[in-house]
Design brief:
This protein is an all-alpha fold. It is built from 7 helices and no strands. Among the domains are: 50 residues, no CATH class; 38 residues, no CATH class.
């Protein structure tokens, strides 16, 4: 017997409705699994509490009102919705919004990927045709050469600090696991 079969037979065992062979098999399972006895005892306690609980009284028309409520809710849930025209699954409002977005997307991508085909001059073309006055362009003699970058440096200046410091001896402070 497995756990699921055992759980199915608990209430029949408590109410003494099992056949002799099933009862012996059930009790053998109880002897094998001590925690199963706790489950049987909890079911017994629950059944005893259920018998103590007072029965509730309902009005005479309770069932009629309950069935009427179920039928009205059922009718309300299954009411057919008015059908609307759709274009590719979109309502007319959503279809027009989607069409506008697609047209805007196509227009923007055409401007990004092929601006030279349009008749309008681009910003770079406007600046390329602009004439720079000669006064604003300094001569090369007045321009200071820039300082060399770190990439162009021949030596690494960060290593100079390490050369000046003495090396420390950590051998007395280290402890290995297997020593």
């Amino acid at each position: 017997m497995n756990r699921y079969q055992f759980e199915d037979l608990i209430s029949e065992y408590v109410e003494n409705e099992l056949s002799l062979s099933k009862r012996k098999e059930f009790e053998a399972y109880l002897e094998e699994k001590p925690d199963a006895m706790e489950l049987v005892e909890s079911v017994r306690a629950n059944m005893a509490q259920m018998k103590i609980i007072p029965r509730m009284k309902v009005s005479a028309d309770f069932n009629d009102r309950l069935l009427a409520k179920i039928q009205t809710d059922h009718a309300r849930l299954h009411r057919p919705t008015p059908s609307q025209r759709t274009f590719f699954g979109f309502t007319p409002v959503h279809a027009s919004l989607m069409t506008g977005l697609v047209i805007a997307f196509v227009f923007v991508s055409m401007q990004l990927f092929s601006p030279e085909e349009s008749g309008l001059p681009t910003q770079t073309q406007i600046y390329a045709e602009d004439i720079v006055p000669s006064l604003s362009n300094p001569t090369l003699q007045n321009v200071n050469p820039r300082a060399p970058d770190l990439v162009e440096a021949e030596e690494d200046s960060s290593l100079e600090d390490n050369k000046n410091k003495p090396q420390k001896d950590f051998s007395k402070q280290m402890h290995f696991v297997n020593d």
